[in-house]
Amino acid sequence: MKIFVAGGAGYVGSHCVRRLVAAGHDVTVYDSLLAGHRQAVAPEATFIEGDLGDTALLDGVIEGGRFDAAMHFAALLNVGESVQVPLTYWHNNVVNTLNLLQALQAHGVRRFVFSSTCAVYGEPDQLPITEDQPKRPINPYGCTKLAVEWMLAHSATAWGLGSVALRYFNAAGAATDGTLGEDHDPEIHLIPLVLQVALNQRAHIKVFGADYPTPDGTCIRDYVHVEDLASAHLAAVEGCTPGLAEAFNLGTGSGHSVLEIVAACRTVTGHAIPVVRADRRPGDPAVLYADASRIRVRFGWQPHYRSVTEIIATAWNWHRAHPRGFRS
What we know:
Blueprint lengths: L1 E5 L4 H12 L3 E6 L14 E4 L5 H11 L3 E4 L6 H6 L1 H21 L4 E7 L22 H20 L2 E7 L1 E3 L17 H9 L6 E4 L11 E2 L1 E3 H14 L5 E6 L5 E2 H12 L5 E4 L14 H7 L8 H14 L7
Parallel strand pairs: 1-2, 1-4, 2-3, 4-5, 5-6, 6-11, 7-10, 8-13
Antiparallel strand pairs: 9-12
Helix pairs in contact: 1-7, 2-4, 4-5, 6-8, 6-10, 8-10
Protein backbone atom coordinates (compact mmCIF):
# COMPACT_ATOMS: atom_id res chain seq x y z
CA MET A 1 0.00 0.00 0.00
CA LYS A 2 0.88 3.66 -0.31
CA ILE A 3 0.67 5.01 3.23
CA PHE A 4 0.69 8.63 4.42
CA VAL A 5 2.20 8.97 7.92
CA ALA A 6 1.68 12.22 9.82
CA GLY A 7 4.27 12.58 12.56
CA GLY A 8 6.49 9.84 11.15
CA ALA A 9 9.68 11.57 12.36
CA GLY A 10 8.71 11.25 16.02
CA TYR A 11 9.46 8.56 18.56
CA VAL A 12 6.68 6.04 17.91
CA GLY A 13 6.06 7.22 14.35
CA SER A 14 9.64 6.60 13.19
CA HIS A 15 9.64 3.05 14.56
CA CYS A 16 6.34 2.40 12.80
CA VAL A 17 7.63 3.81 9.52
CA ARG A 18 10.60 1.47 9.69
CA ARG A 19 8.26 -1.49 10.23
CA LEU A 20 6.01 -0.41 7.33
CA VAL A 21 8.97 -0.09 4.97
CA ALA A 22 10.30 -3.49 6.04
CA ALA A 23 6.90 -4.98 5.19
CA GLY A 24 7.12 -3.61 1.65
CA HIS A 25 4.81 -0.58 1.88
CA ASP A 26 5.45 2.73 0.08
CA VAL A 27 5.58 5.34 2.87
CA THR A 28 5.40 9.14 2.78
CA VAL A 29 6.24 10.88 6.05
CA TYR A 30 4.66 14.30 6.67
CA ASP A 31 6.14 15.98 9.75
CA SER A 32 6.65 19.56 10.93
CA LEU A 33 9.83 18.55 12.82
CA LEU A 34 8.51 20.54 15.79
CA ALA A 35 9.15 17.45 17.92
CA GLY A 36 10.38 14.93 15.35
CA HIS A 37 13.82 14.39 13.84
CA ARG A 38 14.67 14.16 10.17
CA GLN A 39 17.43 11.64 11.00
CA ALA A 40 14.83 9.27 12.46
CA VAL A 41 12.98 8.82 9.16
CA ALA A 42 13.77 5.61 7.30
CA PRO A 43 15.78 6.47 4.16
CA GLU A 44 13.40 4.39 2.04
CA ALA A 45 10.48 6.69 2.95
CA THR A 46 9.60 9.92 1.16
CA PHE A 47 9.84 12.88 3.54
CA ILE A 48 7.81 16.10 3.34
CA GLU A 49 8.23 18.81 5.96
CA GLY A 50 4.78 20.15 6.70
CA ASP A 51 2.25 20.96 9.38
CA LEU A 52 -1.30 19.60 9.52
CA GLY A 53 -2.38 23.20 10.01
CA ASP A 54 -1.14 24.04 6.50
CA THR A 55 -4.29 22.87 4.75
CA ALA A 56 -3.17 23.88 1.26
CA LEU A 57 0.05 21.87 1.46
CA LEU A 58 -1.69 18.97 3.19
CA ASP A 59 -4.45 18.76 0.58
CA GLY A 60 -1.92 18.89 -2.25
CA VAL A 61 0.15 16.08 -0.75
CA ILE A 62 -2.90 13.86 -0.15
CA GLU A 63 -4.27 14.56 -3.63
CA GLY A 64 -0.97 13.90 -5.36
CA GLY A 65 -0.02 10.84 -3.31
CA ARG A 66 -3.00 8.66 -4.26
CA PHE A 67 -2.69 6.99 -0.88
CA ASP A 68 -4.39 3.78 0.21
CA ALA A 69 -4.15 4.55 3.92
CA ALA A 70 -3.03 7.12 6.47
CA MET A 71 -1.59 7.03 9.98
CA HIS A 72 -1.56 9.84 12.51
CA PHE A 73 1.16 10.31 15.19
CA ALA A 74 1.35 14.13 15.07
CA ALA A 75 -0.23 14.98 18.43
CA LEU A 76 1.03 16.92 21.41
CA LEU A 77 1.31 14.46 24.30
CA ASN A 78 2.42 16.09 27.55
CA VAL A 79 -0.35 15.57 30.13
CA GLY A 80 0.93 18.28 32.48
CA GLU A 81 1.38 20.79 29.67
CA SER A 82 -2.15 20.07 28.42
CA VAL A 83 -3.51 21.21 31.79
CA GLN A 84 -1.56 24.47 31.51
CA VAL A 85 -2.32 25.28 27.84
CA PRO A 86 -5.48 23.32 26.95
CA LEU A 87 -6.42 25.38 23.90
CA THR A 88 -3.06 24.62 22.30
CA TYR A 89 -3.84 20.92 22.71
CA TRP A 90 -7.37 21.24 21.36
CA HIS A 91 -6.08 23.09 18.31
CA ASN A 92 -3.22 20.74 17.46
CA ASN A 93 -4.79 17.45 18.47
CA VAL A 94 -8.36 18.05 17.31
CA VAL A 95 -8.48 20.86 14.74
CA ASN A 96 -5.38 19.63 12.89
CA THR A 97 -6.71 16.07 12.90
CA LEU A 98 -9.95 17.40 11.44
CA ASN A 99 -7.88 18.99 8.66
CA LEU A 100 -6.33 15.62 7.90
CA LEU A 101 -9.64 13.76 7.93
CA GLN A 102 -11.18 16.32 5.58
CA ALA A 103 -8.30 15.86 3.14
CA LEU A 104 -8.64 12.08 3.32
CA GLN A 105 -12.38 12.30 2.69
CA ALA A 106 -11.91 14.64 -0.26
CA HIS A 107 -9.44 12.30 -1.95
CA GLY A 108 -11.00 8.94 -1.20
CA VAL A 109 -8.63 7.56 1.45
CA ARG A 110 -10.69 5.12 3.51
CA ARG A 111 -8.14 3.50 5.85
CA PHE A 112 -6.88 5.35 8.92
CA VAL A 113 -4.85 4.31 11.98
CA PHE A 114 -4.87 6.72 14.88
CA SER A 115 -2.40 7.01 17.75
CA SER A 116 -4.75 7.26 20.75
CA THR A 117 -4.09 6.79 24.46
CA CYS A 118 -5.17 5.07 27.65
CA ALA A 119 -5.76 8.60 29.00
CA VAL A 120 -9.26 8.40 27.45
CA TYR A 121 -10.28 6.22 30.41
CA GLY A 122 -9.29 8.57 33.22
CA GLU A 123 -9.53 6.80 36.59
CA PRO A 124 -10.68 3.28 35.65
CA ASP A 125 -13.52 1.49 37.43
CA GLN A 126 -11.61 -1.81 37.38
CA LEU A 127 -8.28 -3.29 36.40
CA PRO A 128 -7.04 -4.37 33.97
CA ILE A 129 -8.69 -1.80 31.72
CA THR A 130 -10.85 -3.14 28.87
CA GLU A 131 -11.98 -1.16 25.84
CA ASP A 132 -15.59 -1.21 27.06
CA GLN A 133 -14.91 0.70 30.28
CA PRO A 134 -16.34 4.25 30.57
CA LYS A 135 -14.34 7.01 28.89
CA ARG A 136 -13.82 9.76 31.49
CA PRO A 137 -10.53 11.53 30.73
CA ILE A 138 -9.29 13.73 33.57
CA ASN A 139 -6.93 15.96 31.57
CA PRO A 140 -7.18 17.94 28.33
CA TYR A 141 -4.77 15.59 26.54
CA GLY A 142 -7.08 12.61 27.10
CA CYS A 143 -10.12 14.69 26.15
CA THR A 144 -8.60 15.65 22.79
CA LYS A 145 -7.82 12.04 21.95
CA LEU A 146 -11.35 10.95 22.84
CA ALA A 147 -12.78 13.75 20.69
CA VAL A 148 -10.85 12.40 17.70
CA GLU A 149 -12.16 8.90 18.39
CA TRP A 150 -15.69 10.36 18.22
CA MET A 151 -14.85 11.96 14.86
CA LEU A 152 -13.65 8.60 13.57
CA ALA A 153 -16.87 6.87 14.61
CA HIS A 154 -18.98 9.56 12.94
CA SER A 155 -16.82 9.40 9.79
CA ALA A 156 -17.32 5.64 9.53
CA THR A 157 -21.08 6.15 9.42
CA ALA A 158 -21.07 9.25 7.21
CA TRP A 159 -18.46 8.49 4.54
CA GLY A 160 -17.20 4.97 5.07
CA LEU A 161 -13.90 5.65 6.77
CA GLY A 162 -12.35 2.52 8.22
CA SER A 163 -10.32 3.40 11.29
CA VAL A 164 -8.38 1.77 14.08
CA ALA A 165 -7.64 3.83 17.21
CA LEU A 166 -4.79 2.28 19.17
CA ARG A 167 -4.90 3.27 22.82
CA TYR A 168 -1.29 3.15 23.96
CA PHE A 169 -0.41 2.64 27.53
CA ASN A 170 3.21 3.81 28.14
CA ALA A 171 5.47 3.61 25.10
CA ALA A 172 9.02 2.71 26.10
CA GLY A 173 12.30 1.26 24.86
CA ALA A 174 14.20 1.68 21.61
CA ALA A 175 14.96 -0.19 18.41
CA THR A 176 16.69 -3.48 19.10
CA ASP A 177 19.61 -2.56 16.83
CA GLY A 178 20.17 0.69 18.75
CA THR A 179 19.68 3.00 15.76
CA LEU A 180 16.35 4.55 16.79
CA GLY A 181 15.19 5.76 20.18
CA GLU A 182 13.50 8.43 22.23
CA ASP A 183 14.64 12.04 21.87
CA HIS A 184 12.26 14.69 23.23
CA ASP A 185 13.16 18.27 24.13
CA PRO A 186 12.24 18.64 26.88
CA GLU A 187 12.09 14.98 27.82
CA ILE A 188 8.83 14.04 29.55
CA HIS A 189 8.82 10.24 29.82
CA LEU A 190 9.95 8.46 32.95
CA ILE A 191 12.43 5.89 31.64
CA PRO A 192 14.61 8.29 29.61
CA LEU A 193 14.53 10.79 32.48
CA VAL A 194 15.80 8.13 34.88
CA LEU A 195 18.47 7.09 32.38
CA GLN A 196 19.62 10.70 32.15
CA VAL A 197 20.62 10.40 35.81
CA ALA A 198 22.70 7.32 34.96
CA LEU A 199 24.34 9.36 32.19
CA ASN A 200 25.16 12.13 34.70
CA GLN A 201 22.94 14.55 32.76
CA ARG A 202 20.83 15.25 35.85
CA ALA A 203 21.57 14.85 39.55
CA HIS A 204 18.45 12.91 40.53
CA ILE A 205 15.04 11.74 39.36
CA LYS A 206 12.03 13.61 40.69
CA VAL A 207 9.12 11.37 41.73
CA PHE A 208 5.76 13.14 41.65
CA GLY A 209 3.51 11.91 44.45
CA ALA A 210 4.18 9.35 47.18
CA ASP A 211 0.64 9.03 48.53
CA TYR A 212 -1.21 7.27 45.73
CA PRO A 213 -3.28 4.19 46.72
CA THR A 214 -0.58 1.80 45.47
CA PRO A 215 1.82 -0.52 47.35
CA ASP A 216 4.70 1.98 47.37
CA GLY A 217 2.63 5.17 47.00
CA THR A 218 3.77 5.95 43.43
CA CYS A 219 1.84 5.75 40.16
CA ILE A 220 1.63 2.42 38.34
CA ARG A 221 1.77 2.21 34.55
CA ASP A 222 1.85 -0.45 31.82
CA TYR A 223 5.04 -0.12 29.74
CA VAL A 224 4.86 -1.43 26.16
CA HIS A 225 7.89 -1.60 23.88
CA VAL A 226 7.92 0.77 20.93
CA GLU A 227 8.67 -2.04 18.47
CA ASP A 228 5.61 -3.89 19.76
CA LEU A 229 3.60 -0.74 19.08
CA ALA A 230 5.02 -0.71 15.54
CA SER A 231 3.93 -4.29 14.88
CA ALA A 232 0.42 -3.43 16.09
CA HIS A 233 0.22 -0.49 13.67
CA LEU A 234 1.29 -2.69 10.79
CA ALA A 235 -1.40 -5.24 11.64
CA ALA A 236 -4.00 -2.49 12.02
CA VAL A 237 -3.35 -0.75 8.71
CA GLU A 238 -3.27 -4.03 6.81
CA GLY A 239 -6.45 -5.31 8.50
CA CYS A 240 -8.46 -2.07 8.69
CA THR A 241 -12.06 -2.48 7.45
CA PRO A 242 -13.65 0.42 5.49
CA GLY A 243 -16.81 1.67 7.19
CA LEU A 244 -15.84 0.33 10.62
CA ALA A 245 -14.38 2.37 13.52
CA GLU A 246 -12.50 0.16 15.98
CA ALA A 247 -10.42 0.86 19.09
CA PHE A 248 -7.92 -1.37 20.88
CA ASN A 249 -5.70 -1.21 23.95
CA LEU A 250 -1.97 -1.70 23.49
CA GLY A 251 -0.23 -2.87 26.64
CA THR A 252 1.33 -5.86 28.34
CA GLY A 253 -1.36 -6.48 30.94
CA SER A 254 0.83 -5.71 33.94
CA GLY A 255 1.89 -2.52 35.68
CA HIS A 256 5.04 -1.18 37.33
CA SER A 257 5.29 1.68 39.81
CA VAL A 258 7.60 4.65 39.39
CA LEU A 259 9.90 3.31 42.10
CA GLU A 260 9.95 -0.12 40.46
CA ILE A 261 11.06 1.52 37.21
CA VAL A 262 13.82 3.37 39.06
CA ALA A 263 14.96 0.10 40.66
CA ALA A 264 14.99 -1.65 37.27
CA CYS A 265 17.05 1.21 35.80
CA ARG A 266 19.53 0.83 38.65
CA THR A 267 19.84 -2.87 37.79
CA VAL A 268 20.36 -2.24 34.07
CA THR A 269 22.78 0.69 34.39
CA GLY A 270 24.61 -0.08 37.65
CA HIS A 271 24.02 3.54 38.71
CA ALA A 272 22.67 4.56 42.15
CA ILE A 273 20.05 6.97 40.65
CA PRO A 274 19.05 9.19 43.61
CA VAL A 275 15.33 9.98 44.06
CA VAL A 276 13.78 13.29 45.18
CA ARG A 277 10.12 13.35 46.22
CA ALA A 278 7.76 16.00 44.88
CA ASP A 279 4.04 16.81 44.99
CA ARG A 280 1.58 15.08 42.70
CA ARG A 281 1.09 16.47 39.21
CA PRO A 282 -2.47 17.42 38.20
CA GLY A 283 -4.13 14.96 35.84
CA ASP A 284 -2.18 11.81 36.80
CA PRO A 285 -4.34 8.71 37.51
CA ALA A 286 -3.00 6.34 40.17
CA VAL A 287 -3.01 3.04 38.25
CA LEU A 288 -3.32 2.21 34.56
CA TYR A 289 -2.68 -1.16 32.95
CA ALA A 290 -4.29 -2.86 30.01
CA ASP A 291 -6.37 -5.81 29.02
CA ALA A 292 -5.12 -6.15 25.44
CA SER A 293 -6.93 -9.38 24.60
CA ARG A 294 -9.25 -7.75 22.05
CA ILE A 295 -6.47 -6.84 19.63
CA ARG A 296 -4.98 -10.29 20.04
CA VAL A 297 -8.26 -11.81 18.88
CA ARG A 298 -8.81 -9.26 16.08
CA PHE A 299 -5.32 -8.98 14.60
CA GLY A 300 -3.28 -11.69 16.32
CA TRP A 301 -1.09 -9.08 18.03
CA GLN A 302 0.65 -9.66 21.31
CA PRO A 303 3.71 -7.97 22.82
CA HIS A 304 7.09 -9.60 22.31
CA TYR A 305 8.70 -7.65 25.17
CA ARG A 306 7.12 -8.50 28.53
CA SER A 307 10.01 -7.84 30.93
CA VAL A 308 10.34 -4.20 31.92
CA THR A 309 14.07 -4.79 32.53
CA GLU A 310 14.44 -5.98 28.94
CA ILE A 311 12.54 -2.91 27.69
CA ILE A 312 14.78 -0.61 29.74
CA ALA A 313 17.91 -2.39 28.43
CA THR A 314 17.00 -1.44 24.84
CA ALA A 315 16.45 2.16 25.93
CA TRP A 316 19.79 2.21 27.78
CA ASN A 317 21.52 0.85 24.69
CA TRP A 318 20.16 3.79 22.67
CA HIS A 319 20.76 6.54 25.24
CA ARG A 320 24.27 5.37 26.11
CA ALA A 321 25.24 5.42 22.42
CA HIS A 322 23.33 8.68 21.75
CA PRO A 323 23.67 10.78 24.92
CA ARG A 324 22.54 13.87 23.00
CA GLY A 325 19.86 12.05 21.04
CA PHE A 326 20.00 12.45 17.28
CA ARG A 327 22.56 15.25 17.68
CA SER A 328 25.10 12.73 19.00
